[in-house]
Amino acid sequence: MVSNPLHGLPFLPGSSFRDYTKTAFHRSQTLGYRNGYAVVQPPTVGIGGDRLPVNQLSPAELDELASKAPALTYGQPKQAPPAEFIPAHVAFDKKVLKFDAYFQEDVPMSTEEHYRIRQVNIYYYLEDDSMSVMEPVVENSGIPQGKLIKRHRLAKNDQGDHYHWKDLNRGINITIYGKTFRLVDCDRFTQVFLESQGIELNPPERMALDPYTELRKQPLRKYVTPSDFDHLKQFLTFDKQVLRFYAIWDDTDSMFGECRNYIIHYYLMDDTVEIREVHERNDGRDPFPLLMNRQRMPKVLVENAKNFPHCVLEISDQEVLEWYTAKDFIVGKPLTILGRTFFIYDCDPFTRQYYKEKFGISDLPRIDVSKKEPPPVKPELPPYNGYGQIEDSAQNCFVLIPKAPKKDVMKMLMDNGKVLRYLAALDSPNPEDKDRRFIFSYFLANDMITIFEPPVRNSGIIAGKYLGRTKVLKPSSSVENPIYYGPTDFFIGAVIEVFGRRFVILDTDDYVLKYMESNAAQYSPEALLSIQNCAQKHEAPALELENKQTEDPGEQELEALIDTIRKQREPHPCKDNIREAFQSYDQDASGYVDKEMFFKVCDSLNLPVDDSLIKELIRMCSHGEDKINYYNFLRAFSNGPG
């Protein structure tokens, strides 16, 4: 290892030397991360790993030196007074930004120009951020010019923002009240102002010129050498020879436009063209036979002939470079005549033969231009909102004045008054819903269902009508193909889902078994067997109760009282769910209910208990002080013989 020859020399002015043996000149790392944050660390070594001087200042001392203000000989300097406030309307008074722009305007009803370029000046007033649009007046232009938009703040968008000078630049488009203006250039003051505010200006563009105005600046007329074509020979050769073409004019893209049929006649004797309209019966149009009289049709005009007054004078050979000839009429190609584009789709046999002999074109097939009817759109029903029946709601989508859906009249007549009643429990995980019982009534005439919940003492649940008459959809059905619950879906153990609530059928009345036995083909054997087993369980208590009633010594008096009450209530029909309301509280089918519960059920069903005859009937049906035989009581309110 070679020792440093400069080691040990005193570090004095004039005695410092450069170490030529040093090869490392890197600086130590002063940036680091602590707990995910970047921190600055003081260097531990110098450049190239040299030892730092002993008197190196700490970061806190460096910060103190940086923030320390030197003491001046004559004290602290005086603060300059604040600048005088100048309002914007004074600072920017008479300072206006000027932009050169143009916009394009359609010319719908002109055969010589389709659009027009209008040059304008856009002024931006810095004092209040208002703008105005001025169009230089051109003499005898026939266009209202001058001030197009008065000076005011212009809306930039629908959010209420307004245009600012920061939004303006060369070579951009701005939209003002539906018109699009193209900014092409600005004056010197505008350029200096925007550049002083840090805005980079786009390069200037050339001002667009109006094609119609430039056309009028061209020379008036160019002459064409007369032709030496023999028109007499053409007349004698092609006299009474006419080419017939069938064409359509499709104007459906314009407002109130339609597709109309025409016949184009080309006279070979003088190369004239005639266009006839094809009228249909009751088409609602005036019967004008001709769309265009027989005349020669110019194909290419000279440049200055576009401004020729066609409505006053006829076009001569001096204004036309090229005329339409027979070779321009080809089946299957469009043809523009006087601004209208006709599509030729067919011709007559003479025309086909002429093109075959003259031009060698033998294939001129007919093109089918008939528009096919679009496939009918299948109406889609909107989502069901849950109100009313699906069939009733769907009628509003089919006709303007909805009609009631058709009903099965024969079914309503045959099954009128037939009601199937079932006892059901609510299938719910809530413990308070475990003992709730419901009575389902299925009306065979219209397949509607009602649900009644009998009152339970001290249950805290408001009893009564749970569901009015309505049809109930099955969970697997859809709005397009609704499937409702039918009588075959109700049997012992069946689960019925009604608008998100699940019910389990527990019991039925006697009429359900009779109906199922008379219509056994509609039910499964398991469903019929479940109803029969349930009916057999109720027969034994009912027979025992009936035997007890026949042994009662006051049976004749009771029967007479029941007959009297029936005759008195004959004009007033009774409700069908009276028996189900009492049976729901008779869990052991004994025929007796508590007296307090008996009057509570009568009150919920609006049964008259204040009448003297009914009070006597309740007294005779009482069994002791706490029980009432509701079987004999219901016999007085039943609609048929007891």
Number of domains: 5
Radius of gyration in whole Å, from Cα? Answer: 52 Å
Mean pLDDT: 81
Count the helices. How many?
15
CATH topology title of the largest domain = PH-domain like
Give the low-pLDDT segments: 542-553
Give the CATH class of the largest domain: Mainly Beta
Could you outline the blueprint of secondary structure elements for this entry?
Elements: E1 31-34, E2 37-40, H1 59-67, H2 88-91, E3 96-106, E4 115-125, E5 130-135, E6 146-152, E7 172-176, E8 179-186, H3 188-196, H4 211-216, H5 231-237, E9 242-250, E10 259-267, E11 272-277, E12 290-295, E13 298-301, E14 320-323, E15 334-337, E16 340-347, H6 349-358, H7 390-398, H8 409-414, E17 419-426, E18 437-443, E19 448-453, E20 464-470, E21 495-498, E22 501-508, H9 510-518, H10 525-550, H11 555-568, H12 578-583, E23 592-594, H13 595-604, H14 612-621, E24 622-623, E25 627-629, H15 630-635
Antiparallel strand pairs: 1-2, 3-4, 3-8, 4-5, 5-6, 7-8, 9-10, 9-16, 10-11, 11-12, 13-14, 15-16, 17-18, 17-22, 18-19, 19-20, 21-22, 23-25, 24-25
Helix pairs in contact: 9-10, 11-14
Protein name: EF-hand domain-containing protein 1
GO molecular function: alpha-tubulin binding; calcium ion binding
Domain EF-hand: 573-608
Give an overview in words.
The protein has 642 residues and is of the alpha+beta class. It folds into five domains: 1-69, no CATH class; 88-216, PH-domain like, CATH 2.30.29.170; 231-358, PH-domain like (Roll), CATH 2.30.29; 387-533, PH-domain like; 552-642, Recoverin, domain 1 (Orthogonal Bundle). It is 22% helix and 24% strand. It contains 15 helices and 25 strands. The chain has helices at residues 59-67, 88-91, 188-196, 211-216, 231-237, 349-358, 390-398, 409-414, 510-518, 525-550, 555-568, 578-583, 595-604, 612-621, 630-635; strands at residues 31-34, 37-40, 96-106, 115-125, 130-135, 146-152, 172-176, 179-186, 242-250, 259-267, 272-277, 290-295, 298-301, 320-323, 334-337, 340-347, 419-426, 437-443, 448-453, 464-470, 495-498, 501-508, 592-594, 622-623, 627-629. The strands form six sheets. A six-stranded antiparallel beta sheet has the order 6-5-4-3-8-7, covered by helices on one side. Strands 12-11-10-9-16-15 form a six-stranded antiparallel beta sheet, covered by helices on one side. Strands 20-19-18-17-22-21 form a six-stranded antiparallel beta sheet. Strand 24 and strand 25 form a beta hairpin. Helix 9 packs across helix 10 (525-550) and helix 11 (555-568) runs antiparallel to helix 14. The relative contact order is 0.04. The model is unreliable at 542-553 (pLDDT under 50).
